[in-house]
Each structure stands twice: as structure tokens, then as C-alpha cells.
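With this grant's support, we have paired protein sequences with C-alpha cells. One protein thus recorded is set out beneath this paragraph:

_____
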Amino acid sequence: MPGGYAGRFAEIDLSKGSVKEVTFPDDVLKNYVGGRALGAYIVFSRLADRWENIDPLGPDNILVVLTGPVNGLYPGSRTCVTGKSPNSNGILGSSAGSWFDAAMKMAGWDGFIITGKASSPVYLWVLDDKIEIRDASKYWGKRVTEARNGILRELKTELDKKRPSRHHRPPPIALIGPSGENLVRNSAVIFDQEKAAGRGGYGAVMGSKNLKAIVVYGTKPLPEPADKNSWATLRTALMQRNIQRYASYRRWGTGRGIWQFGWWTASLPIRNWQDEWHDNISETGPHVYEHGLWVKQFWARCWNCVQHCYKTAVVNNPGTPEKLVSELPDYENQATHGSIVNVWDPDEICRNTTLANDLGYDTIGIGNTLAFAFELFEKGIITRDDVGYDLKWGDAAAWRRLQEDVAYKKTEFGKILALGEYRAALEIAKRKGKKPEDVLYYAIHCKGIEWGAHGIRSGLDYTRWTISYAVSVQGGDHTSIASPKMEDYELTPLVNDTAMFCNFTAPPIDQAAMWITAVTGFSFSVDTLKTVAWRSLMIQRAALLLGGPDVRWVDDSGKAIDVNPGRMVNEPLPSGPAKGKKVDPTVFQQELQTYYQTHGYDEKGIPKSDVLKQLGLDFVDKALTRIRK
């Protein structure tokens, strides 16, 4: 058994109500390591022969919750959630911080493979070796905070009775809110109360399986590294390095980026990406501190982390003596629930994001989708008759009202937006008698995944390439951008999501190889890790292109649909240091062809047969024969 692994995965069939233990051979663990790559392998290898026919929100989909070998042994590692995405019809490796991953390892599990659908709402209670499927009917319909508190109170009472001499810290929990229960495609899996595996819509997948939550409590020692001395040396060096780095993140969290990406790099979404530059100081870190919103750091919210980028916020509730206590919104939340709707007041942004978390949303996905609706209202494509009220820039109350309408599918328009931005655009075009492209123009997505808050027009952000999102196997996910020659900007997130390093605490890739070698006992080099990442990328690319049942990302000629939103190509930035810049189609085509050549794709963007076989991906090659022309 390689070091770092608990050595067991639990396969949980909700239809049958059964749990069984499964293992993977050492060669599979070495070839895919964990997290994103192993998850892609598990999901696609099981479903490849019928991928196009699998409904992501049907019982045949597989939901996988995974760790990697360094989880628990690494300061600031993450948990991966994956499956067939109801947004892209591909596979996203969606991850979240917390100490859920360490609890899994201490309970003796490397991952959970969840299949089928329960006949009524349930939650999973994992106490070391024992996994129970429990009734969750009384928590179904509850928002995240209320459901979390109820489930944890129930379990703490049991733990106190079983082990009265011990103090029981509330066990970590992953759960969904009303949006996931109602199969809103922009739903997240919420860890604890404010951390999310957001991208991909896996909250809706949990909802489709009638699975409200997973709770884990482990009392065993963590799996040991294969080479304790090397691990200890690497860990000490990394802790010292990370204490010295990212001091501003420890002080302000990522929210400081509102000024950085809005003023310096002109890449912040404003009014549904109509602009990307601002000179408004109201959301900068020091201003939020002086405003009184930021009150305390969340110490050690992620296992063994020294960054502490989560913060506590307190907001006054107008008209009541009560105060709202929540997480201080990070950069992505401040952007996709603030500037994107032209709201700049920190209190209002905090109310927006707190509601989104409590409803169980992918905050980035739903933020883009609502902003899309606000612009359609501005352009007159939809009206008050469609929505039931006005959608005007800067109206935070209308923003929150629309969140509720979508999460609970209260209105017909809410049901449309619950489809996600891409599918909602198609449905609105159909109902309004418009050409799909005329409405899709305002939908800022790639492969059905709404963009993270980093634009490409200025060329000044790390999303500097015109293909950054267009060919990414995770679509609009800002943590997984593409680069023409698989530079570190693309390679590093693939490695981090596979080993389960957090991007804010991750080592350089050469040290990542040393970490995985020391922990597992396998021999990893940079080239070996690159090959692991390449396998994950190829599986994810194949899943996207095959797509189905309602969308696939190849055209009738068999060519991959790798494009940017129309706004990025046709509308130059209207202000700021990059005023007048937009995506150059010639540059885009040059980068696209370079990407295809360096990544092993043919001229149509389909992974080549010989490359796949060289990587040991014969099952992927076989599946792609169905779309090769």
C-alpha cells in the first residue's frame, strides 16, 4: 500500500441502500494520484460507453467525493467533488477547502463513490468504518445554515451519549441548500457553511439523488507518509515559505483583488461584463476594514493551514436590531454579487453572498446568470411582465429577490434561469421568437460554465490568452484556464486539483513532485506529474466533446466548438488602461491552433488516437470514435 492513502473507497448505492468497500490497484493510483484526475478516471471509465445518453440529473450519474494522498499531511489541502456536470455535460474537478478531507482520512476513507437515487431524502453519516444512510426528510427544504445546525446537533447528541468523556467538535459536513434540492444547475456542494465546491453544478447532482448531506467523523490516525523524514523536511520548509507569502491574503482575504483586478488589470466584471475597469475604492481591503464589516479571521478553517484567508463579517440588517454574521465575501463573490450588478456597498454585497451561500448556490455561476438577466431587462429583451418586477443595475434588493425566485423556482422566469445561463439564453430566445445567437451574445460562458471574475480583453490579468476559457476543459472556471503550450498557468492547477493542494498554499511543481514522492513512495518527477495532468485533461476533453443528452460541444462536421462569448470579440473595453482592446480573431486562431498541436489534438480539436493510446487511455480513444469524422 502506498503511503498517504487510507487504502479504501466506499461505493454507496442509494437506490439499493447498500455500502461496499472498493480498492484501486497501485498502478491506477500512480497514474491518476487522486482528486481531479482520479475522479475523471472513475466517472468516465464507468460511463464512457453510454456517456451521451447519461442525464447528469438522472440516477445513472455518479457523484464522487475524493481526497488525494497528501490530504491531512499537507497544510491547506482540499476535497474534490466530481461527476457528469449538469452545466457542461463534461467532467469538472470542483474542490473546496475545510477539514472534511482530513476527517475522511481519519475515518479510513480515500473517497466516496455515490450511485443511484434514494427513494426519499437522506444523508450519509460516516463514523470511522461505519457508513449509515439516514433519513433527512426533516432537513429537506431547509437552507444551508438551518440544515447544517440541525444535522450536527442531532449527531453531537449521539456522540455525547456514546462517548460522554470526550469533547466532540462538530464534525465536518458537506450539504446542499434549496437550490440543489430543486435541481438548479448553478448549485454547489457547501462544506460547513461558507466554503463550496461550486463549479459544475454538483449540488444539483446531490439533489437529484435525494442526498442532503454527507457528515464525516474520524478517530483514527492519519495515514503515514512513506518517507517521514523527507515529508517532515518539506513540510517545515513549506510552512515557513507560506507564512512569508501572501501576507495580504491573511490580512484581507482575496477580496483585496477588487481593486487589483478592477484598476490595475481592467478585468473585473461590471454590469454583466459591459465594462471591466473602475476607480471605486469602496470595496478595497482597507476600506472594508474601516467600514466595520471585517471583524475577525476564521482561524484554521482549512486543515493545518497557515493562510487563514477566510474572514468573519458582521452586517447591520436595516430596520431590525439584528446583525448578520457571515463570511466576508472573497474576491469572486464581491465581483459576481457586487460589481457585476453595479453594487458597490460592502454591506449589500455581503447580504447578497450570504443569501447565495444559504440557498446553496455556485455563487459565481448564479451571479453571472442573474447579471445576464439584468442586462436582458436593460436591453428590453425581457420585461417586467416576464420577471414580475424591475431588474435595474444597482438594485441589491431585486438581486436577492431573483435569487429566491430561482432557488425555489417560484416563478416561470425563475425556472428558466434555473437552467443556467447557457440553457436559459436558448429558452428565452425560443420564447421570444429570437435567434439563439442574439440572446447568447449576452451570456458570458464557455461550454455552459459561466466565467470566473477575470476578463481576457485587457490581456493584463493571468487570463492573458484569448483561449484561456474557450478551450479549458472546465469551461469558464477561472482556476483552470488554458494556455497555448501548457505553461504552468494551465499545468499547475491540474496538478494541484489532482494532488489536492490548495492554490494558495501549493508548492512549485518541482516541489509538488517531491511532496507526492515522499508521501506515496512512488517516484514522481515533473514530467511524470505532467503526464498525470495530461491524462486528466484528455478524459475531461473527451467527456465535453461527447456531451449529451441535450448539449455536446462539437458541430455537425465533427469540429470542436471552442469559442468566446460574442461580447469579448465585438466590444472593445470602454474605459481604463486597456480602453479599446478586445479579442483579436487572428490571434485567437493562432493560439487555438498552437493549443491543438501542443496538446495532442487533431485539426478539429479532437484528441488524437495515438496520443491517447500512448497515455494508456484506450477506453477514451474508443469512446471518441463515435464523434470522429
Notes: The longest helix spans residues 526-546. The mean pLDDT is 92. The two ends are 44 Å apart (CA to CA).
